[in-house]
Input
Amino acid sequence: MRQRSSRGSERGERGEQRGERGGGRERGAERSEQRYVYGVNPVLESLRAHAERVERLFVTEGQLAAKAAAEIFSRARDAGIRVERVPRERLAAMADGGVHQGVVAELRGFEYAELEDLLEAAEKSGRPALLVVLDGIQDPHNFGAIIRSAHAMGAHGVVIAKDRAVPVTGVVAKASAGAVEHCPIARVVNLSRALEELKEAGVWIAAADPHSNQPLWSARLDGPLALVVGAEGAGVRQGVLEHCDFRLGIPMLGQVGSLNASVSAAILLYEAARQRGTSRPGAGS
Output
């Protein structure tokens, strides 16, 4: 992959200007409505990463595993978070019928990052930027699974659109196994404009395209890179594809013409991590 000329100084100037306006992540970041996160791992990751955002915890007697309960109650006590014991039916209602494992956390609204924050995170890491841009993903399970893969493979963040895309919800947090608390997510008004901003910052844009004749392993994915993944069936929209530098296909032998969006994202991310030498053996779950 050729190296795009970086405009780090311009990024710094824009960051200073944004800070003067109070637009940084800590001061003025976009925030969603209050939400519920359920399940042992998502709740624990919320407590570990951002205990200050947890308003209350709800638990059901006898359903929460002892080891998990010990850490949850300890962290809640240290952070001064109120714990309420409620009937199983109430937890089920909060989790919209999802598998809550006996615990639900009421959180303040999710704080979305800005696109600039993701680029700054990459710069601070000392590694080439690796971002995932999602075009029209509306299934919360797919979204959560992509966040989980992005975090596991060392991506610096995920970018979604405000419209025609699922926001961060309890279902997303559960599907991400808590990775949503560690992987920055930027929400932008216009994906095409965001891609052009990434190009100006020196990032190359690669789209997942089942019609492409270029297999992903034939491309250089070790430089600053944003992987664009579209919704199942529709794929990446043509208007978004026009802003991508190249398109990557995932060769398949079976009769099915495409993969699940989260599976495609995971494969692309792993190949990028492999080329960068950042992947390592780990246990799946």
Remarks:
- The chain has ten helices and ten strands.
- The longest strand covers residues 54-59.
